[in-house]
Structure formats: C-alpha cells, structure tokens
Amino acid sequence: MVLVVDQASKFWALSALSGGEEVTVIPRLLSLRLLLNPGAAFSLGEGVTWVFTLAAAGAVAGILYMARRLSSPAWAVVLGALLGGATSHLLDRLFRPPAFAQGHVVDFIDYGGLFVGNVADIALTGGCALLFLLSLRGTPLAGVAGEGRLSSTEDPA
Q: Is 110 labeled as catalytic in the residue annotation?
C-alpha cells in the first residue's frame, strides 16, 4: 500500500508542481513544492547516488529475508511500512532521471522549510519508530518454537 500511495503521490507532484509552484497547506508549517533529491536526507551525499541505490536494495532484501519468519501482526505492519518505503525509494533510484541506478527521489512535502520529503519517508520514519517500540517491549518477530503451534506429531487432546 505504501509503495502505491507513494508512487501515485509522486506522479501527482511531478505533474502539478513541476512549474515551481508552492502550495501552502498550513502557513509556515506545511506546504507542497517539488524537489528532485539526488542524495539522502537533507540532500546529503549528492555525488554518490549509486551508494543509496545499493543501500535501498540491501534494505529491501533484508526486510524480505526477515519477513520469512514473520508471525506477529505488529511486526507485519512495521516490516510492511519499511518495505514499501524502501522499495519506492529503490524504484526512484533505479528508474528516474538522470540515469539508471542514479535517479533522483521525488520529494514534495515541505515541513516548514526544515526538510522536504514524501510519503515513503513518512512510512520509513513511522516504521522505524514502531520498530523501536516493539524492540523495547520485547515483542518477538516470530513465535517461539513450541509455543502456540502443534507439530505434526503432537496430539491436540
């Protein structure tokens, strides 16, 4: 869901905000303006876009690997948010101009001039916050072996 909403909102931003328009949503707090970001957060690392492409690919692979053990609904939400955000950023890096694996991420949500982001950034930030909370609570990613599930040789009676 994150992937679809993020890519659709970026498509909208590219068509509606490409002329340099800025749309004020909440004065001095939130506006919409298009920014094509070759770097990471706060446009850091603009000259090494390919590193962010590799990092996003590694994150997607790691999340998919971890999801194989998944049995917790709370962790499913966390990994889903992280997977959607990371995959959307990876697609931007791979397929957007200026070149394959060096594409710029489409950012358009301006938080009062502090930074500009997108829906994937919201999902990634929220996913990381929930990951931190689940880790603090000790919520397991998967059920503990022998708890809650019967093996094929156990009798339920």
A: no
pLDDT digits (tens, 9 = 90+) for 78-127: 999 999 999 999 999 999 999 998 899 999 999 999 999 999 999 999 99
In what helix (H) or strand (E) does residue 20 lie, and over which residues does it extend? none
Q: Is the pTM of this model over 0.90?
A: no
Cβ-Cβ contacts under 8 Å for 155 (sequence gap 6 or more): none
**107 noted as active-site residue:** yes
Element (H, E) at 25: strand 22-26
The residue annotated as part of the active site, out of 92, 107, 110, 155, is: 107
Distance CA(34)–CA(6), nearest Å, equals 14
Q: Two tokens at 125?
A: 């930030």
Who's near 7: CB < 8 A, 6+ residues apart? 88, 91
Of 6, 92, 110, 121, the active-site residue reads 121
